[in-house]
């Protein structure tokens, strides 16, 4: 699949940064907030001139790939059928400031992207862009081969979709470590040593490959075992 | 363009627990008394503002900043007395206004309110608020506070507090209004909100390069124009540590700023700060650490780049000794501030 048009759902800190990176990479970019276009017009014009402010439906209808960049607790406000047959990169995480109490947002026996996938069941969800802070995403995007380049963890159940996203992430300015299992998304959820970290390929790979040795992994395993 | 004569410089403490020379820590009570002394010396060194944070946790000494500021007021003459920040979301705007109007009276008009959402959760259950309402609480209370700021009878109703019907709030201030900032992070929506309400803005730049905020400051001005509201010069607050020796400064700062960030990180699940991250922040990012000259150069660059009206340095993060904290305040007041002004004057002349 060739990607020419990028749609970003969520015009907050991350959505704006990713819109900027996508524009730099030469994509046509559409972006939406929770309300009318009018609400985000000034923001988009000032911060990412060139991106098209729109509403969710219009963004989805005119994009080859979609990035979900809204607070995790809000995805149910979006119609479950909106992303039908679409490739969606899930950049969301649980974050108390916007999501409130964790147990009310996430069920303990699943991972956040699996829950997003279960809700948008006709979409193909790939997890990505979630574990690096937004200013690192903005400042540390570099062309391929640059010594300062950082890496992102990309994972999903659908091989082809994951490979497409990996290629896309490459054009956005990051190396990739790829898994073909959406549930592995747990490795970059809050609490993991990878959450909020900005690492190069080798360092990221090192932690991913030895993830079962991390305290976080042991804790997750223990809590699953107790249920 | 930066107006050098009107530039303001502040120091802010979150009320971190002070360390003894032997590495043990002081009590919260001792730490509070230390802040009063620091306010006193900051005033003597000509620093314009001191800000004191509000926290409800064992690692911070101050939960009621206005009381600390009241004590500082009684031993100082010129320094403005600010909070950094008042967690408005879990407070009552009416009481906030009353407390600050009182502080303003006893300090001859030096009180300054900085409203924010806070970066910890404790105050919500403590005062009976639901974390899920985080955003709504702040929005609603900002709106009420704005009405109170006019110091005329208020009629208001909302979701989280009893309605007001043509009610007065006392005491009235001598200037007729409390100077009020709203502390914000990096979200475009919060910048527009601040501009729409007509608040002054203090940006918390606590990570990454100041450069990326340039478009956000444009956004503030654009939004103020759009809503026909006054435009104020933007203020910035960032972490820092100054010492006579650059390596000492980095050593103390790494240990203490890291401890502070890692603690916040724990509540949000983000990874501890690495040395690489710290070095990056110190070199090009938002930590102002080093000798007075290094810190002055970096602050001057930020002020010039963003066209600021005020720069506040957050001091005392982690567990620093009284000597470290006091020396830093002295260097900031006597060396850094004059040097920043000098650099900026040269820059303006060169333009
Ligand atoms: N901050 C980071 O460093 C970072 C890094 C990686 C991933 N993330 C994740 O990315 C997501 C966004 O984070 P953020 O920091 O960008 O948050 P943010 O600044 O609060 O922005 C969230 C955006 O989502 C919009 N939104 C909410 N509900 C929506 C809906 N139903 N349809 C369309 N847009 C909607 C909001 O619009 P309104 O204002 O109109 O509600 C707002 O523009 C979160 O899940 C976060 O965990 C954050």
Automatic annotation (TrEMBL), chain A:
Keywords: Oxidoreductase. InterPro entries: NAD(P)-bd_dom_sf (IPR036291), P5C_Rdtase_cat_N (IPR028939), STEAP_metalloreductase (IPR051267). The keyword Oxidoreductase applies. Residues 5-94 form the Pyrroline-5-carboxylate reductase catalytic N-terminal domain. It comes from the Bacteria. GO terms for molecular function: oxidoreductase activity. The keyword GTP-binding does not apply. This is Pyrroline-5-carboxylate reductase catalytic N-terminal domain-containing protein. It comes from Secundilactobacillus malefermentans.
From TrEMBL, chain B:
One of its GO terms (molecular function) is monooxygenase activity. Keywords: Monooxygenase, Oxidoreductase. GO terms for cellular component: cytosol. Residues 23-300 form the Luciferase-like domain. The keyword Nucleotidyltransferase does not apply. Pfam families: Bac_luciferase. SUPFAM superfamilies: Bacterial luciferase-like. InterPro entries: Bact_Lucif_Oxidored (IPR050766), LLM_Atu2307-like (IPR022290), Luciferase-like_dom (IPR011251), Luciferase-like_sf (IPR036661). It comes from the Bacteria. NCBIfam families: LLM_2I7G. PANTHER family: BLR5498 PROTEIN, LUCIFERASE-LIKE MONOOXYGENASE. This is Luciferase-like domain-containing protein. It comes from Secundilactobacillus malefermentans. The lineage of its organism: Bacteria, Bacillati, Bacillota, Bacilli, Lactobacillales.
């Amino acid at each position: 699949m060739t990607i020419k048009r990028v749609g970003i759902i969520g015009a907050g800190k991350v959505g704006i940064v990713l819109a900027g990176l996508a524009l730099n990479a030469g994509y046509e970019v559409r972006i939406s907030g929770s309300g009318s276009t009018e609400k985000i017009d000034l923001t988009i014009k000032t911060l990412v001139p060139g991106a098209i402010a729109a509403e969710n439906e219009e963004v989805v209808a005119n994009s080859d790939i979609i990035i979900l960049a809204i607070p995790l607790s809000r995805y149910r406000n979006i119609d479950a059928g909106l992303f039908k047959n679409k490739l969606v990169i899930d950049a969301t995480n649980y974050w108390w400031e916007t999501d409130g109490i964790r147990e009310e947002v996430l069920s303990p026996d699943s991972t956040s992207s699996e829950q997003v996938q279960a809700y948008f069941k006709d979409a193909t969800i790939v997890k990505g862009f979630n574990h690096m802070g937004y200013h690192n995403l903005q400042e540390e995007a570099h062309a391929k081969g640059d010594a300062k380049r950082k890496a992102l963890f990309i994972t999903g159940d659908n091989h082809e979709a994951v490979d497409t996203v990996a290629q896309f992430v490459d054009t956005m300015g990051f190396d990739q470590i790829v898994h073909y299992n959406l549930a592995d998304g747990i490795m970059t959820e809050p609490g993991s040593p990878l959450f909020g970290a900005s690492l190069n390929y080798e360092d990221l790979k090192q932690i991913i490959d030895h993830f079962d040795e991390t305290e976080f992994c042991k804790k997750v395993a223990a809590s699953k075992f107790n249920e | 363009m930066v107006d050098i004569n009107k530039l303001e410089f502040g120091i802010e403490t979150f009320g971190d627990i002070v360390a003894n020379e032997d590495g043990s820590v002081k009590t919260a009570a001792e730490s509070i008394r230390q802040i009063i002394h620091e306010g006193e010396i900051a005033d003597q060194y000509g620093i314009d503002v001191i800000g004191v944070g509000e926290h409800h946790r064992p690692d911070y000494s101050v939960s009621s900043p206005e009381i600390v500021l009241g004590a500082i007021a009684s031993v100082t003459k010129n320094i403005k007395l600010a909070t950094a920040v008042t967690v408005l979301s879990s407070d009552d705007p009416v009481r906030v206004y009353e407390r600050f109007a009182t502080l303003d009276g006893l300090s001859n008009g030096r009180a300054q309110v900085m409203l924010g959402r806070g970066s910890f959760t404790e105050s919500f259950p403590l005062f009976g608020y639901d974390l899920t309402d985080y955003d709504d609480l702040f929005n609603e209370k900002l709106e009420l506070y704005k009405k109170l700021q006019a110091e005329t009878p208020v009629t208001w109703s909302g979701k989280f507090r009893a309605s007001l019907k043509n009610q007065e709030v006392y005491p009235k201030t001598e200037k007729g209004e409390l100077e009020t900032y709203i502390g914000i992070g990096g979200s475009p929506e919060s910048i527009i909100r601040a501009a729409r309400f007509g608040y002054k803005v203090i940006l918390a730049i606590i990570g990454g390069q100041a450069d990326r905020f340039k478009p956000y400051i444009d956004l503030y001005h654009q939004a103020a124009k759009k809503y026909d509201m006054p435009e104020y010069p933007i203020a910035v607050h960032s972490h820092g540590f100054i010492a006579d020796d650059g390596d000492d400064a980095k050593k103390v700062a790494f240990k203490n700023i890291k401890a502070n960030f890692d603690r916040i990180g724990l509540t949000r699940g983000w990874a501890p700060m690495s040395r690489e991250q710290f070095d990056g922040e110190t070199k090009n990012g938002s930590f102002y650490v080093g000798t007075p000259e290094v810190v002055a150069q970096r602050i001057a660059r930020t002020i010039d780049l963003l066209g600021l009206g005020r720069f506040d340095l957050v001091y005392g993060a982690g567990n620093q000794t009284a000597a470290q904290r006091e020396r830093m305040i002295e260097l900031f007041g006597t060396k850094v501030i004059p040097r920043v002004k000098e650099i900026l004057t040269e820059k303006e002349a060169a333009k």
